[in-house]
Amino acid sequence: MSTTLLSATEVAERLSDPARLARADATMTEGWEDTGHPPIASAVLVPVVMHPSPTILLTLRTAKLSAHAGQVAFPGGRMEPGESAEQAALRESWEEVGLGPTLPKVLGRLPDHLTGTGYRITPVLALVEPPLQLIPEPGEVELIFEYDLSRLLDPALPQKQRAKFRGAERSFWVWPHERHYVWGATAAILRNLALVLR
């Protein structure tokens, strides 16, 4: 593991730098085009919690959901008609984890990610000052946890894995975690964030 650490100030500077943001690319899950429908517009908040050693706020979705059950995700969801990505990400974060819409300092966007399930996700970058008093919405979120941002600085991470999806072999990114499987769209967005921060 890399021993490189960034202070909260350095993280804020790097995430506000247009030249660094330009390092990230639009991404897609293999097989997104198999859906046969135009992608559904959605947005997620990528909240960087500004501890002395910053973290990324993530959720574990409940096992009862009809889509993406039990997966690690950023707070977010479908965009309502007339809503911007920023408005949708802040609204969904309030609904899912109780993150007040005035708390995140929105910095900008990472490039869109097209999922294999037919969503076009716009990741909205934001800084959040601790302490936070978050409440998971029990119908959607089983757990709220924080991922150590310093892991994104390790050039040996993440790993590419392969699995069968809809009858075809697909490759996808995975970030290591002691308890949770961080993969798919969440992992691809984290990888773009890593490219900006490194």
UniProtKB/TrEMBL annotation:
PROSITE patterns: NUDIX, NUDIX_BOX. The keyword Phosphoprotein does not apply. Residues 35-169 form the Nudix hydrolase domain. Keywords: Hydrolase, Magnesium, Manganese, Metal-binding. Gene3D superfamilies: Nucleoside Triphosphate Pyrophosphohydrolase (3.90.79.10). Belongs to the Nudix hydrolase family. InterPro entries: CoAse, Nudix_hydrolase, NUDIX_hydrolase-like_dom_sf, NUDIX_hydrolase_CS, NUDIX_hydrolase_dom. CDD domains: NUDIX_CoAse_Nudt7. This is CoA pyrophosphatase. It comes from Teichococcus aerophilus. Its cofactor is Mg(2+); Mn(2+).
